Amino acid sequence: MQVSLPALKAFESAARLGSFKAAAAELSISPTAVSHHITNLEQRLNVSLFRRETRKVILTAPGRELAVATSQGFQTINTALEDISRNDKQIKVATTSSFAALALLPALQRYYEQYPHSKVNITSGEEINTDHFSLSVRLGALAEQADGDVLIRERFNLYGNARLTTQLDQTSPITIYTTRWKNSALPEVPLQAWLNHNDLSYRQFEVRYFDQELFGIQQALLENACVFCSTTLTRDYVKAGLLTESGYPPIDSALCYYIENKDSLITRHNVMFIEWLEELLKQH
User: Fold this and answer.
1) Structural domains counted in the chain
2) Concatenated DSSP letters for 233-266?
3) SS3 113
4) More exposed terminus of the chain, fewer Cβ within 10 Å: N or C?
5) pLDDT tens digits, 30-42
6) What are the φ/ψ torsions at residue 99 (nearest 5 degrees)?
């Protein structure tokens, strides 16, 4: 049987409060409107739901039965709405291990200071599988992405301690760690282009590879070696004095970080996080 939702809401409120006038105040409608809704509901059901007295209304037996059902039903709806509202505050981010560890997590406390009522759930891995409500911060080929999806174009440079990055002309080769991606479809790290641009040669280096920039940075720190990697991922290490950027200029790459279909992920908290992330990456 089809009955109107406003009529059921008017009935539930009047049954709970024991008054058409009180129900009208709660629902921000007139007592006449409440009475009209309930009369229509009674006609639809062909029963009396209230016994109307001068100063109050009293539920009939069918009214009591319906009051239990409507109270439970609206409580279920309200609980679901509250859960959905809480979920809207939870921002789900899926990204690469290197970006999560080296760029996102170190800055996350600053996001919470700005937006203390949000919660960011981060998952990382090299294969990113998400639903339509997750923010997938991916590393990909710049040429293949829509302009509106791109967060930052990646630039690369050589990092190490101050002595290593200024003594590239020494006789023994300097060890450099860099990245050879698992995903062969990704553009290569632009080491050769950087060498050419700076009139340097592979002969000056012993190049070793990992499949993630995170590992190359960690190994360079452990061995007191150099790492050729993204300027985005080394910022906090440079600020902390753990790495020094070489005196050579960085070079643009064909890589970028992007969020696929960014403009379609329009929940309020997603938008706040994307704006914050874009501002964070500008600082690189």
Assistant:
1) 2
2) HHHHHHHTTS-EE-SSPPEEEEEEEEETTGGG--
3) helix
4) N
5) 999 999 999 999 9
6) -65, -40
What is the DSSP-derived secondary structure letter of residue 116?
Answer: T
Task: Tell me the pLDDT tens digit for each residue of 49-76.
Answer: 999 887 789 999 999 999 999 999 999 9
Q: Could you tell me the CATH number of the domain that includes residue 67?
A: 1.10.10.10
**Backbone conformation region of residue 115, classed left if phi is above 0, alpha if psi is from -120 to 50, else beta:** beta
In sign, the C-alpha dihedral spanning 224, 248, 217, 174 is negative
Asked whether residue 61 falls in the same domain as residue 157, the answer is: no
82 CB-near residues (< 8 Å, 6+ apart): none
CA 146 vs. chain centroid, Å, equals 19
Domain check: are 254 and 179 in the same one? yes
